[in-house]
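User: I'm new to structure prediction. If I give you an amino acid sequence, what do you actually give back? Let's try with this one:
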Amino acid sequence: MKKIFAFIVTLLAVAQTSMSAAEPADYYKSCEGKTGEALLTALRAVVGPHKNVGYDGLWAVYNKSDVDGNGKYIDIYSTKRWTPGKEKCGNYKYVGDCVNREHSFPKSWFDDKSPMVSDAFHIYPTDGKVNGQRSNFPYGECANGTTLPSSNGVQALGKFGTSTFPGYSGKVFEPVDEYKGDLARTYFYMAAAYNDKISTWSSDMLAGNAYPAYKTWALNLLLKWHRQDAVSEKETDRNDAVYGFQNNRNPFIDHPELVEYIWGDKKGQAWYINGSPVPTWSQPADKSTIDFGLTATNYTISRAIDVKGMNLTSPVTVTLSGNDFTLQQSTITAAAANAGTSISVSFKRSTSGVSTGVLTFKSGDLTSTVNLRAEAIAGIPALPAENIAETSFTARWMSLGDAETYQLTVKQNGTALAGYPVTVNAEAEEYDVTGLEPETLYSYSLTSDTRVSNEVNVTTAALIPDVQYLNGTEFAFLTDPGTPSQPAEVWIDVENIDNDLTVSVKAPFALSTDMNNWSRSITIAPQEDRFYLRVEATTAGEYESTITIGSGYYINDEGIATASVRDTSTPWFVEDFEKAGEGKYDTYSNQTFVGNPCSWNLTNAGIWASDKGYNGNYALRMGKNSTSAIESASPKKDGIGTVSFYAERWSSSDGDMVLQVEYMPAQSDQWINAGEVTVSADTYAKYEVTVKAGGSNYIRLRQSAGGRGMIDDIIVSDHTSASAEGIEEDTLADWDAYCINKTLVIVNHGEAAVYHVYNLDGQTVGGAKLHGTQYTVSLPAGLYIVTDGSNSRRVVVK
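Assistant: Good question. You get back a string of structure tokens that encode the predicted 3D arrangement of the chain. For your 798 residues, that looks like this:
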């Protein structure tokens, strides 16, 4: 009997553990019996309140929510699997360079406000380059969109272009089919969780109201994606993981049918958790069109058409009307349709022309119709181009087996390009056309000895505007109340933008091009490579702002400025180990100690009540060998100025204790050695190591030699100068050059150096030898290069 009882208890424990990750019992009980707007409002009361993990905290969430079986981040924008902690952006140039945090629901739409700006449900780890291409454009469908080129075997996922979805004609980013349903349910979550706020947000997708929240075209798009791409295991796992951090859930993953009761076919009907499962049709979408494309007369082409339903209880009958199409299967079991299957439809036409047909799927009272279209020509079928980029595209055709080679001709304005026609392998069925101009209309066609193809028009993609941060995207400041911070220099690289850019921040941050005139918004020319950022004099507190850089329709909002405004004369990061009295740490082991400023990971170290601290009852005892260490479990913000501590060796017989003082930037995985300390005294002595590292950093004291020893009162001071997160100090900080009042100014505040000023023709137009002084020269408006022989700066005089 005892064994049976123990077994039952074990089962209950397992069940409770599972329940803590999955949907809690009665979680949505208060939403039952409602529909439409009332149901959406009720969901807000359930899923709206949640714990804000913070923007930096998203990485910890991703380590649970967005990893594959190998512990790598899954990327919805590329085929790369990212190593957590190792490949964060910074700057990037190609697909596959780095991973960042993508606001799938752009933060500019809700003015960068909390808690939306750090809600993990809509922020995904994605490829930095593709994220930059998407910018803050709406999601949509763009049949002729551009996919970024692959790099080092990493393929971009998704494409950017002009919308081809009914109701919207602006620029959009189209994700791949695999993640369209995920993103649709993400957008439905935003409408539920923030239903009391969404009416004030601004976007081409938003309706400016709480219900239905989205414009008609956007709602039709999201409904289509939701129905075509059912909830996946990846989504349910992510939902459970985020719930563990934020303590709220995405209801449209737990109960996908809610979408229909709020916006779709069941609107007006009351929703119940345990109501009868509603049969719904997923794929192919009702009233959609499947285009077989182009083929040759008397040639058969076949298409496998995916079929998917949910909660179907009756077999699916499939019928086909229309000439020239043939259906291979007319019945599908309900189980097969619910699991997902496919049917084959073939097309063959004896004469040139277009054929249409209709597929009808029927299961019980549920009916869905799909239109079919196909075209046949008597010549070689030239197919639409693929891989359309700024200077290239892939020409495609259908080989008819009548010749080994075809002649491919590419034209612009009716005239063949130099080098064309070219002989191509007919069986290859594609050819890369390169060396083209962006945003230019071309055409191509093929010929053989006996056949001529149709002509295909293709317009190359526009150059993609881009702004890159060259010294990081996160800038941290520390200053005293009422005192402006030191300025940080922000380096950027601008590509494919011809007009001026507007840079803006929110109070209390300010921007400048010359470090004399400060404002919330500045205008810079695309040739300029930097601007300055600081915190104005303000009251004590924690502050944050997005740095927005825009020109025309392009917006970059990847930059983040944070500031701690407080009394910097008193260290706040102090560990005295007195909290050891609240737990039990008296073993040499690997354990976590919850301390004052943070939690610490101890390796072969412990804390004993019998050990007297320097100023208290407790101190850390390092182990009997050189593997002992104490490491902060979370990064310290506001930089590291110095690391000081008191230490003594255990006894003379144990010998000296050698400690390595190390730090690691939050976005890195490499420890940096700041200095070595040898503890040789048998009584407590103070040791201090200078670090001077900006941003957020982990801290570690690692024993590298010697025996046992004691450590107490670890104090880490802040690094008070402004810095980019985890970026080394500016190597050009000892001199500067900028424009003020239409005059070029060079300022030296370091070693003596000779400076030269050149125009774009390479002519010397100014210069001086400076040592702690400045030089000014009046010049015509234009771009100039200032150099000290080792480094250079671009200055726009205007």
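You can read the tokens as a compact description of the fold. Here is one thing that stands out. The two ends are 90 Å apart (CA to CA).
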